Amino acid sequence: MNHQFRASRASPGNLLFPTVIEVNDRHVTRIKPSWITRVEESVSIRQVSSVTITRGMLWADVTIHSSGGTAPLLGSGHTNADAERLKDLIEEYQATLLQTGTADVRMLRACPRCAELVKVAARVCRFCQCELPIELTEEADASEEPGRDWSWR
Ligand SMILES: [Zn+2]
After folding, report:
1. What distance in angstroms lies between residue 89's CA and the mean position of ligand 1's atoms?
2. Low-confidence ranges of the chain (pLDDT < 70)
């Protein structure tokens, strides 16, 4: 799922083509459209080292710093509320990534014993070491190959 944060058209430099910061569970992308081209710069969630907000009189600038040696992504002309949401969202994805190894919540489920998030495909909980029921993944496999039993006969 992509979350888009569009700079306000009333802010400097954003009247015709407002810059868009797009966030999903893998990447933060800065999209700057223009008459001819559309420039996209992207940093993976894994590489984001920090997000800082600089509040001005009217607009907030969001700087997404990266640990990968690439230049930070700068989003200027956001409302203060948008800037806060953008920062929270990135930090939330990062926290999930740190905790579970993936920021994609569709790949996760709660352990029935300790309630920590573990990967859907995991057989053993990495937090409490309990064995996880595997019905969910088994069901998905079975529905994809309905005639598998017959092919052996
Ligand atoms: Zn557990």
Report:
1. 26
2. 134-153
